[in-house]
Amino acid sequence: MYYKLNAVTQRLIKSAPSAYNPQGLRITVPTELPPMIFATPTKYVSEAGNMVEYLGHNKVPDLQKLFQKSDGVPVHLKGGLMDKMLYRTTMALTIGETLYCLMAADACDQLPPLQGSSRILYHSD
Amino acid sequence: MAHQAHAYHMVDPSPWPLTGAIAALLLTSGTAVWFHFHSLTLLTMGNILLLLTMYQWWRDIIREGTFQGHHTPPVQKGLRYGMILFITSEVFFFLGFFWAFYHSSLAPSPELGGCWPPTGIITLDPFEVPLLNTAVLLASGVTVTWAHHSIMEGERKQTVQALTLTILLGFYFTFLQGMEYYEAPFTIADGVYGSTFFVATGFHGLHVIIGSTFLAICLLRQIQYHFTSEHHFGFEAAAWYWHFVDVVWLFLYVSIYWWGS
């Protein structure tokens, strides 16, 4: 690439190679490409592999590392705080609802017999 | 930590069988309370507990298989047997309702007018929406097979497309069947015709919803890179279940909609 000074702008500008320009020589596209600088970085398709992040990237290896940690924590709590919260909520509901169920059954037991039915009430003696 | 010298899965202690059993207690007692005392509290609580149990139990199975590597070939074989046995039990479940239908329709009682369909029943035209429903489910069988082949060939985008299409077809079936239920000229209370029709097709519809949900979970897992081209049993189980739902519909269509009209 040849440059010359533009006297008006005081800047170097590209110019045709006037020093050596034989007849018959066709000016071809320069074989060496100028370095391309991208505003946003991109990956070549060959680098990206099979699928260029279609619907998110693969988190499975990280999750495998997390769940294979030798910390003795059972699998239902190994995910962290959310697991603990969900487990506690579920157990609270289980115990609470069992007690509610027993209370409801007891309430049904306390009901008087229906008219016309032969339902027997259990006596405590 | 000691390493196991065998290929089988010794499961960590888990609270979910207990919470599931309590959920079953609440659902049964809740149904009884609803029938007799018109209160939905127990039933609602049972449903919440059931959903929490299902979410956490199946989440743990995914962790054990995909993240901890416990689903070795012998373990996977056991899972396959398990799913096949479960689907077989479902076949027997539907067999009962088909038995009921044929019992009543092959020798119609005098109370029905001695004919089938019974006197006064306006049946649905089997060549209208029911035929469309048949086409929809058959098409969904094709798309789920396409999804399977795409997984095996490592085609991520195609798998997602095929699975999505399968789920959409499943939703379309449910929507169409819902419309049919709304527009039907007979109800569940219309004698044995109504009972056999709505109980058989109703349970089938429930299984379509269950199958669609299972496939939707598989879609989420596929997007999250859980499945490999060699190991994707969760998807296979969902596909088996979906084919079972399709076959039940074909029997329903031929027996109740077509022969029974």
TrEMBL record, chain B:
GO annotation, cellular component aspect: mitochondrial inner membrane
Keyword Membrane: yes
Superkingdom: Eukaryota
Keywords recorded for this protein, A-Z: Membrane, Mitochondrion, Mitochondrion inner membrane, Translocase, Transmembrane, Transmembrane helix
Ranges of residues in domain Heme-copper oxidase subunit III family profile: 4-261
Pfam families cross-referenced by the UniProt entry: COX3
Assembly notes: Component of the cytochrome c oxidase (complex IV, CIV), a multisubunit enzyme composed of 14 subunits. The complex is composed of a catalytic core of 3 subunits MT-CO1, MT-CO2 and MT-CO3, encoded in the mitochondrial DNA, and 11 supernumerary subunits COX4I, COX5A, COX5B, COX6A, COX6B, COX6C, COX7A, COX7B, COX7C, COX8 and NDUFA4, which are encoded in the nuclear genome.
Function: Component of the cytochrome c oxidase, the last enzyme in the mitochondrial electron transport chain which drives oxidative phosphorylation. The respiratory chain contains 3 multisubunit complexes succinate dehydrogenase (complex II, CII), ubiquinol-cytochrome c oxidoreductase (cytochrome b-c1 complex, complex III, CIII) and cytochrome c oxidase (complex IV, CIV), that cooperate to transfer electrons derived from NADH and succinate to molecular oxygen, creating an electrochemical gradient over the inner membrane that drives transmembrane transport and the ATP synthase.
Family membership noted in the UniProt record: Belongs to the cytochrome c oxidase subunit 3 family.
Protein name per UniProt: Cytochrome c oxidase subunit 3
Native source organism of the sequence: Salvelinus kuznetzovi
Phylogenetic placement of the source organism: Eukaryota, Metazoa, Chordata, Craniata, Vertebrata
Encoding gene, per UniProt annotation: COX3
